[in-house]
Amino acid sequence: MKFSLALFIFLALELLFVSYIDIRYRKISNYWSLLNIVLFFLCLFVYPQLYKFNFVTFFYPTVFLGVGFALFTLKIMGGGDSKFLFSFFLLVPEVYHEVFFLKLIYSTIAIGLYLLIYNSIKNFDKLCMSIKLKDIKGIKSLYGTKFAYAPVIAISWVTFGWEIRKFLKF
User: Fold this and answer.
1) Tens digit of pLDDT per residue, the chain (170 long)?
2) Burial, 16: exposed, middle or buried (Cβ in 10 Å; 0-12, 13-18, 19+)?
């Protein structure tokens, strides 16, 4: 099924902008989520062959909202990240949900592992000392609690676009 190249590029630009804000300020405004929800309702009329208002369309976004809330309560993910991901997933046509979800999982694992290894190497002496002293708080402080998630979504979007490039059309 074809995907609008104009919409894909618009969403890529939105992700670049939101990623910059997320890295710079560590906060994603609710306005981005509201914009995506409004865009979803516009897409229902502009692209009726791609967007439907049914349970299946809301399955992945709702799961992300629930999982995001759980991760927010555990202080792993920011609230803005989970709301933005929920609303962004509404703009991914339902036929592409699984493909984009897999790209998001792969990107999250790759970037998470990179940050884990990078922080372990960078703070190796402190890490060894904290392990010897069995200082859990010291270990946690070396890795931080959260990282900007919008750039991960942006990287996923680019790899998703590469995979579906033959389905993009003006």
Assistant:
1) 688 898 899 999 999 999 999 989 888 999 999 999 999 999 999 989 889 999 888 999 998 888 888 888 877 778 888 899 999 999 999 999 999 999 999 998 998 899 889 888 988 888 888 888 888 887 777 776 667 889 999 999 999 999 999 888 86
2) middle
Q: How many structural domains does the chain have?
A: 1
Could you tell me which of 92, 5, 98, 9 has the C-alpha nearest to residue 50? 92
Task: Please state, in angstroms and as integers, the Cα–Cα distance from residue 130 to each residue in 66, 112, 113, 140, following that order.
Answer: 34, 21, 20, 10
pTM summary value: 0.85
For residue 155, give the amino acid letter. Answer: I
How crowded is the C-beta side of 9, counted as CA atoms within 13 Å?
6
- Tokens standing for residue 158: 């680019």
Distance (Å, whole) CA 160 – CA 35: 22
Angstrom CA distances, 2 to 47, 101, 169, stand at 10, 18, 6
Q: Which domain holds residue 22?
A: 3-169
Q: Are 119 and 143 in contact (CB under 8 A)?
A: yes
